[in-house]
Specification:
Blueprint: H1 36-111, H2 117-132, E1 135-138, E2 150-158, E3 165-171, E4 173-176, E5 179-182, E6 184-191, H3 198-201
Parallel strand pairs: 2-6
Antiparallel strand pairs: 1-4, 3-6, 4-5
């Protein structure tokens, strides 16, 4: 209880709330700091364990969500890039296929000695550009016949071959990379003698 003055009023109470003792320079410890707060701090680790576990579970869940979203985005980017490459290849293949008759004309002109002068330079430039785009011709006499890349226009038998063979190339085939734009049209010979016809039997 506060002391009373002579006039009957209570004297004011002055509290020194400074954290540093001005005389000793040491940190003061308040009496009220000792009990409830310290007990609360002592109880915090045990009481906060369930809360920490819940936070850890939420963090793991959010991390998993983020990783899943990132993986989906990467897959999306790869799919878009793959589709872009496929569309570009299809467009290039369509243009090259339209130019194949022009290359056939150039080839015939070259065989007949008509590819001379400025026309020869233009033809060479065109062939160089198409080669740069991935176009390549194939089909040679003596190649083993492959129905995937060859189209047989003529068929015969010959004892000089040991397997179905292109004995004559009637029209070159063209491919872009691994894609066949036009099969090589060939005459094919199979091993063996030609079978006897009904007229020979008579």
């Amino acid at each position: 209880m506060r002391p009373l003055r002579e006039n009957g009023h209570e004297e004011p109470v002055i509290r020194d709330n400074r954290k540093i003792d001005p005389e000793t320079g040491e940190v003061r410890v308040r009496p009220e700091d000792d009990s409830p707060k310290q007990e609360q701090q002592q109880q915090t680790p045990a009481e906060s364990a369930p809360a920490d576990a819940e936070l850890r579970a939420q963090l793991d869940e959010r991390t998993a969500d983020l990783q899943r979203v990132q993986a989906e985005y990467q897959n999306y980017r790869r799919r878009v890039e793959r589709d872009r490459v496929a569309v570009r290849e299809q467009a290039t293949a369509a243009v090259l296929a339209e130019l194949l008759p022009v290359l056939d004309d150039i080839g015939r002109a070259r065989e007949h000695g008509e590819l001379t002068g400025g026309f020869a330079k233009v033809a060479e430039s065109l062939e160089a550009v198409l080669t740069k785009l991935g176009l390549s011709a194939y089909g040679q006499k003596g190649d083993p016949f492959d129905p995937v890349v060859h189209e047989a226009l003529m068929h015969t038998y010959s004892p000089e071959v040991t397997e179905p063979t292109a004995i004559e190339v009637l029209q070159l085939g063209y491919r872009m990379g691994e894609r066949v734009l036009r099969p090589a049209r060939v005459a094919v010979a199979e091993p063996g003698d030609a079978p006897a016809s009904d007229d020979d039997d008579n």
